Amino acid sequence: MPKMNNEKLMASEIAELTHILDRKHAASLGDRFFSIKVDSDESKAFVTVTLRNAGESFYYPVEGRIACKSQELSPKDGAMLLLDFIDVYFEEFFHDRQDTWLPIDWAGFNFEGFEFELKGQVLNKRTEELADLFLDGKINRDEIISSLK
Amino acid sequence: MASRLSEESLVRVYDGGLQAFRWEARLSALALQSETVDLIAMLTLEKAKESIQSLAPQVLYRSLMKQGVSDCLDILPLMSQEQFVAILDYDAWADGELQHRKVFQWLQQFREAEREQIYTRFRDLEEEMQIALVGPFIRAVDPEDFEQLSDEEQDRLESFPGGALYYEVKSEDPEIRQFFADFLEVTMGENMEYAMSVLAHAGFMPPNEQEALMSQFRNARMEDDGFVSYEESLSIFHPISLDMLEKKWSAHEKTALSSKTKESFMQLVMTLASESWDPSTLNEVRSRHAYLANALCSAARVEPGDLESLDKALEQVWSLNGLALEWLASGNIEQAALILKEEHPKTLFQTACTLIERLRHKGLKKLETYIPETSVIRTNLELQKFGLAQKQMDLHYVKVFGPELTERLKAIYSRFPMVMSHTHEGKIIFRPIDSLNALDALQDGLEIALMKLQLVSLTHVEELAELDAHIQRSMVSVQLGGHFINRFLTQNQVDTWRAMSNEAYTEANEKLYSGLDELLMNDRRWSLSANRKTDHLMSALSELAAGLTFIKDQGHFDALFNLIEASPNQEEDSYAQDE
Prior knowledge:
A: 149 residues, B: two-stranded antiparallel ribbon
């Protein structure tokens, strides 16, 4: 039985992929940008591609997970497959005037003969943070309004 | 495993030219006006069906996408079959391949609008299309062959009434299985004979052959909408001779008006046009521009269904034609409106491309004298291989000009050239070349790069790299009373420089600027046209000087140390020569 390749994505490769993702969609991004997080071991890979702006009033993490070992994929190939599919998704997202959405809970997908799961939900972390502060009594209504201006 | 996120994919994006840069659309309202209609409002019209069927398919498609197909279901049964076929041409193909799921999604929407429409719309598609859609997913078995199958295989097959034909849906995709379940349920109810016939035909025909045929039919139809071949699309960007055009329009009396207004020149022209032209002329001009934008899609690697990129192509067409009009009419808006009415948008577009190409060509030739690797970039640009050219720029220019100026040069040498508008959170936002002002800014960008190369070459460095650091070192040398020469500084000199009073520093800077101005006016290798002043160069140099002042004021010694990484011998030698 051939030995399984356990190669993972290196930090420099992730930086390069982030750069390419930013470039591919640059004209559609406005003030937003991508970041990529990869977490993998020999059996599975998790990938999060986040599209967000600096203030995090737009914060869209698209998460993917794939069982690598059982599908005879290395962790690197598993992560790359997820990244490729997420790139396809964002292409659709921008082409369809940003109106193509993913399930907010894990849902199964199939791409190039491999199975994996994805989820994604647009958040406004800025307002969530303000809401928490408000509920904790640390800011009042007027301060919320002025913060959002 | 070949990744979509590869260098090659990036080259494709650069080749297209519409996506790789962050840029602001300033003419969206103008470019996209008339490209969509309010479909819901049209439903209330007395002759709603006729009105909807009179819409250009692209306008109908854009409107459906903008308002959401599921919110416009009542519109679907009213559209003509020709419109539906055109919509499939736009939406259901990618990279020349039929996207079956997209067609099935459309047909399902028709079913939701009116149940039998899933059957009628499918039946009225071209026969080849019907087979191309069904063939890959249906296995048909005639009764004779059915008897030869094992029990297990027989159980998997569905049967037509009386066992006239057996079939199975080959896909495991639930969406596709659902489509065939819905389609066959309705079709069998409406026309059993047809249902059997289409499955039997599709099940026994080679599906790829039909798709290839459909692709040819589709290409022919798309050309009628302006979506021309790649080669034809590329040819639109070729420069033309402007002599005839110049002569033709210079015969008219010109009253040069200032276009240095916040509104774009094209916006002003179209405002005048909408006030003084009859609506049909206005629509004609608009639809010609839309047609031209479609024609650019192939070169820009835009699929007809990619509305966001189509909008961007349209924005670029209106912008560049604004530049052409301003140049041809010398800024006279009435004259420009006349030209807009009489000249084809393609002629205007090529005029703008020619004006820009003249500058870009001159710029490249000069850049090549300083950076020989530019010859490879030039060759790729001449072949319209923008992706490869920009990759080469990353390779050879970043170390020379730094990332920001390289980015500006890349945008200048993009398929759709652009100039810097502003920066936002550290990112450069570009804008199209929509006016003579923007053309000036393009020239400024090139001349700033050339000026930096020239200044540093005057300091006789061995390699032209890190120009900004070289220039800043030379500036400190001048501020300390020496020549504009790139030398290493001793600790004592740095201390003296840091201890300079504000007055002395201001005075030193004044001398620095006047000295640099003289240097640049005496040797105009940086200049792309005669008699150009140095204001834009001075402002670029003052940015570098401001960087130095910041270091000096804030005592950011770490940044300063980059300037003095020299051995004591080198420091003394270079200073002694200068003395």
